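A quick aside before the break. I want you to see a complete sequence-to-structure record at least once, exactly as it would be stored in a machine-readable document. Don't worry about memorizing anything.
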Amino acid sequence: MRNLSPLQEERLKYQPKLPSSLASGISSLDYSEGSVTESVANQAEIKELFANTYGKPVVTFSASNESKSLEARNVGVILSGGQAPGGHNVIAGLYDALKQSNSQGKLYGFLGGPSGIIEGKYVEFTDSFIDEYRNTGGFDIIGSGRTKLETEEQFAKALDVCKKLNISAVVIIGGDDSNTNAALLAEWFVKNNAGIQVIGCPKTIDGDLKNEQIEISFGFDTATKTYAELIGNIERDANSAKKYWHFVKIMGRSASHVALEAALQTQPNITLISEEVETKSMSLSSVIDYMVDIIVRRSEMGKNFGIAVIPEGLIEFIPEMKSMIANLNDVMAALEKEGTSVSFDVVESRLEPANAKVYSSLPTLIKTQLLADRDPHGNVQVSKIETEKLLIEMISSKLAELKSAGKYTGKFNAQAHFFGYEGRCAFPSNFDADYCYSLGYNAYALISFGLTGYLSSVRNLNEPASKWVAGGVPLTMMMNMERRHGEMKPVIKKALVELEGPVFRKLEQNREDWALNDKYLFSGAIQYFGPSSVCDITTVTLKLEQESKLVNA
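That is the input. The structure line, written in tokens, reads:
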């Protein structure tokens, strides 16, 4: 038995809630099918690549009056990609559903992410093993990894391991890239008559894996509440000391959902949204001018302090930076193939002239960070680029110019923060504990009906858990073609912040007020025990989106 804190001991006792359709057990389920589906874009290309799994219907589960006998199944599960609160509960829900369906079934956890199924590294779950991890954060139960499943050799090795363990289904818990791998593996298994199903579960704190059927990815609720607590603490400090500007960069590379949600929970003075910057074609200098204007106006009110929230991926959404980074990714891939040493001069000589000019204009610190090791897709690791420090440096220079011209008399003392890992492994909120358990339980329901190439879907999430709707959405439905490592490949399309949507509009309507008037909110720590109005609240994002659907229905 592991060493447990008092909170963990209490959390282990928590029994997650299930949708009413699943509460009576897998053996008492029925399901209905919707119409055939197609991918969100590039339909012809996706259909050709997924000839055996394309066009399947969305399915919805309902409780049945009949109870059927279910055979024992051996299932494998993989945690893939970065951690997200609630991952352990997905596995717990999957395990409970499997054992309740037939106690002779076995659940194997592949160790270290997707590489575990290739290398045959695994553990068999038992009651005592699972019970130590219920309602806890992290992915330490079996570990995670970022190995991509995409080659014939990898698929063949995975098949051999599954045959050895008599595994007839694999559940991959991951984000958009991990579930792209799930779609590829599902297609290969069907094409090769392997008799092995593949089901995905939507994980990412970034909140960018969603559509009509996937209302939110798991972990988003807990992570944003964790960040909101930290930002609220900083706001309280800023409002007390009244002498610092705090620049808070928040995790979320390709979409600004996390920054937007954290801002709605805390109401900082400045919130940048990457998608807005891109849509308005804001240059780096125009972003600086926008922030400087607020800083100067607050200073004129005697307020030389404030809070700025910055999405992690901002730098890639600024048009001239986006162009330069895309060009840089291709250049770095070419240099790696050639075995050529990387230096500022070599890179600038390979970049297109306009991009080379942008690159050379950046501070040495940022130029160095842009040349750091790439991610598994060959792209810049944006989390390693200290955008918050770049903004502080450029704002300081702009304010110095204004001061010399007699247009600014205030003081600017800045503090830089990056909140990322702090939110990825927190104890899951009651919402994520319930949602994740339901996703895992529901994944086994999909398996029991012989489905493959599906993503576990639990929706109607703004209602109490008993009213949640369980089912599945075809993975191919969410896919499009994108350039990766210089080649066009099928991937699940990321869901970005919709500037016409209710969530961004909420921020937009309050921006000016929050900029000048200190309307800070202090959410405090996540509450696990107490009234439902405090412990079971959803994110502002989910609440606004679901209310908008009802209004437009």
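Two observations worth writing down. Residues 220-424+500-552 form a domain with the Rossmann fold fold (CATH 3.40.50.460). The chain has 22 helices and 15 strands. We'll return to this after the break.
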